[in-house]
């Protein structure tokens, strides 16, 4: 099986481990920023992973010393704004303000975090970005200007307007209601859930489409049933306790394992179906920040040591 791998893959993984060590001090704050910027832990995780991929891919283009925290936040901010542009959502123009002192009262970061996930649906992306970068993550206007591709004066104008809009929307934003599953999909999910609880490997494999995509970024990608059988399926580990829960508005499979300290969060999974077959499996097995946040939400500790060589005890 080893001869199927491209020789450059091992070298790339070694470089990626060095990159991970460099950005480790900034991972948690970056993940939190991505979550608040998108308004969802799920979308935030996607933005977080895309940011890390872009940051790693562009490192070879850097010819000057890098301030890694600003570098990562800049990529995340512009990736989000570019997504909004593609969706044809408005990116508002702003006139520069002569005063660098906003007439709107500074917003307490704790209060802002409580409401920002709902405000994302109502405020332009640049307002959200500037508000978070300056009010929550402590960047100054001169730093933020480069991140959002604006002049420093325009940043202050955005901050002023964002603070005013937060006050206006504070009590007006409706609560999000989880969407119900379609009846057919609900039946498939129940069948899969029971098979996972029973440890019925043959039944689970039988539900997979031949071209199924097993997406466990940032650690693993498999693009067929056979790749899964030859690869990740042989490393399933100890017996698992599986339940279906609504987490941050989504129905997901929550996977626990028994440890010496009791049940611990092992993985979170999502599945997509087409014509009664699993065509996409998204696992969050390697997503440390999301799993720890989910563990808090679910009231269960996270498994700190698991294959292949994962150790999150520090």
TrEMBL record:
Classification via SUPFAM superfamilies: NTF2-like, Sigma2 domain of RNA polymerase sigma factors, Sigma3 and sigma4 domains of RNA polymerase sigma factors
Signal peptide, first to last residue: none
GO MF term list: DNA binding; sigma factor activity
InterPro entries per UniProt: NTF2-like_dom_sf, RNA_pol_sigma-70-like, RNA_pol_sigma-70_dom, RNA_pol_sigma70_r2, RNA_pol_sigma70_r4_t2, RNA_pol_sigma_r2, RNA_pol_sigma_r3/r4-like, WH-like_DNA-bd_sf
Any one GO biological process: DNA-templated transcription initiation
Keywords attached to this entry: Sigma factor, Transcription, Transcription regulation
Name of the protein this chain belongs to: Sigma-70 family RNA polymerase sigma factor
Species of provenance: Paenibacillus piri
